Amino acid sequence: MTTAGDEALAGPGAETQSPSLVVEDLFVDRGEVQVLNGISFSAQSARIMGVIGPNGAGKSTLFNTLTGLIEARAGRVRINGKSISEARGQVAFVPQRQNINWGLPMTVYDMVMLGRTRQIGWFRRPGRADRQAVEDALNQVWMWDRRGSLISELSGGQQQRIFVARALAQGVDVLILDEAFRGVDFTSQEVMTLVLEEMRAAGKTILLASHNISYIRRLTDDCLCLNRSVVACGHTDAVLVPDVMDELYRSVDIYRAYQSEQN
Amino acid sequence: MDVLADIFIAPFQYGFMLRALVVSVLVGVMCPMLGAYVVTKGLGFMGDALAHSVLPGMVAAFVIGVNPFLGAMPMGIVVALLSGYLIRRAGVSADTSVGILFAGLFALGVVMLSFTRGLRVSLEDILLGQVLGVTTQDVVLTGGMAAVVLAILFLLHKELVFASFDPAGASVIGLPTQALDYLLLALLAVVTVLAIQAVGIVLVLAMLITPAATSLLLVRNFPKAMLTGALLGAVSAVAGLYLSYHYNLPSGPAMALVATGIFAVVVTVKKAR
Questions:
Q1: Of A12, A100, A205, B36, which residue is most buried, by most CB within 10 angstroms?
Q2: Which residues on chain A are in Cβ contact (under 8 Å) with B220?
Q3: DSSP assigned state of B6
Q4: What is the pLDDT of residues B167-209, one digit of tens each?
Q5: Interface contact A114, partner B, CB < 8 A
Q6: Exposure pattern of A180-206 as b/e (b: 16+ CB <10 Å)?
Q7: In chain A, which residues have their Cβ closer than 8 Å to the Cβ of B219?
Q8: What is the pLDDT of residues A49-72, one digit of tens each?
């Protein structure tokens, strides 16, 4: 860890609110490989935290752990004061690559309604509140007009918007997006950026992994620099400095892109 | 009118035809409802293999003199859950391990059957179905199990669809996806065993996946595809039964041929457009 991260953590604003997501000394293995080696950080509500790092840095592993898809070997996670298993279903997740069964015909509307599964409850059918939540979510991502289309007929960016809409309909406090904007069309990226800004204004906690440093700089309040362990974490402006980026990416291509952007 | 009555009503003056009709319709409705999941999840091989693997259970039931499905049902559920476990285990190829297990069990069943020459059991009836021979007990058993299967599919519809469409997403939202997977496999075992009565072990797939695959070509909405499949399945079963009666055909293959014929027509019409 560098001192840049520690200084940034102590920056203004970080201590004014109790964090909604706290990760302490988290160790996660993938098979024989230790992917996350004792990482600690916290994220605040009403803020967007970027998560950056080279490929294989453990971003997806971190997200899969926070959403309960894989189990940590050791460490402590608190999501609004609850453990991961207690908070299951209270975190919305838009993963990098959707592992979807495309053969199953699913309309946009029904897909977003899946996000309401927990609120609807076992053995029950959607009620008025659920239908309203789905309509609101689809309007928010500008896809209400396409509610009758099949998911498989949409473009990649539109599909990603539907996943964001499902997360919105879920009505949770914590939203995690893993490279959700990679390769999507311009409109979809702009729409999802607006949605994230609205969610931040509504007091949600948002974690967003991206390789696009200029996008991270533009959108996020805080930034977690991850490479198996925490390289730095703090206000985005304080963290995205050459020393940290150098340590994070060493000689990786993305860093060159970052440098050319500086010039 | 008399001709129509001869074709459509006369067969059911016989009790065995009436019982066969009830079982055929129940199987024809149930199979595609579950088959919609089987087709979209690619579980066809699993259904086929399950049907083969319950043979030892059926033969054991014959030997101790109870309804063969009382032996096949628990055996099918155990094998389905066991293979679900094998599929989940990393490093073991699902197709291979499931295939080895099922081929071995089927062989065991055939060998067991060769020791039971005193019994009035024909391997051909088990392999190809003999719905004309179902007893009143079979009808009651099939009706009861059909009610349970359809109730579960209805009550857990949104959970089963979510877990089938997006397993990771369902897990993140807090659904017990592993339990739902096992439930689907157990339902598959039950439905497969019941379908053996109508179409036999070898042709179970004809009822399980053919009408469901046809309806998925016709309908773009999963619940509607389940219902359309049920209609096509029931039509195939009943039409097969009539063909069997009037032309003295084996009933299981007749049903399978009708289901396959409908599929072929739908594919041809869709391609032509």
A1: B36
A2: 105, 107, 150
A3: I
A4: 999 999 999 999 999 999 999 999 999 999 889 999 999 999 9
A5: yes
A6: bbeebeeebbebbeebbeebbeeebbb
A7: 105
A8: 999 999 889 999 999 999 999 999
